[in-house]
Write a structure and sequence with these properties.
The protein has helices at 2-16, 21-35, 41-53, 58-101, 105-133, 137-152, 157-171. The chain has 172 residues and is mainly alpha-helical.
Amino acid sequence: MISLKLFLSFFKIGLFSFGGGLAMLPFIQEELIKNRGWINPKEFIDMLAISQVTPGPIAINSATFLGFNINGVLGSAIATIAVILPSFLILITIAHFLERFKNSKYVEWIFSGIRPIVLSLIASALYLVGKESILDIKGAIIAIAIFYLVGIKKISPIIGIIGAGITGIFIY
């Protein structure tokens, strides 16, 4: 029964998450913390940290990690397959019909309506993760500094992560 619930939860997350892994975070948080109670906010932040520092897409890493926490190796496999299955099915369907609809104004309008949603989902994830991650002024300063350096000054995110970790060692 847990396997079916796990599959349905991650299938739903994969089906309604546009814009990549970061846009999925509010869906993951809602489904797994609020609706299912399988993890708590601290575990969610830990999952996010591990998913960010391991190679691969955050959505798949998160599904694998959370699936394992919920139901072991079988849970990892189920959650990972479930989260990628909707995209796979949608892409196959789109590829089948792409030639016929690629110049459609309706398709263009649909994507024009979806693009702003992606930004809002990422902003929502930023708020939700920030609320749980930034616990004091020192954490806020580190977050702002790394955002500035990586986002505006375009330093390597790897350097940003290493720098934030080293800074954390010294100030905490």
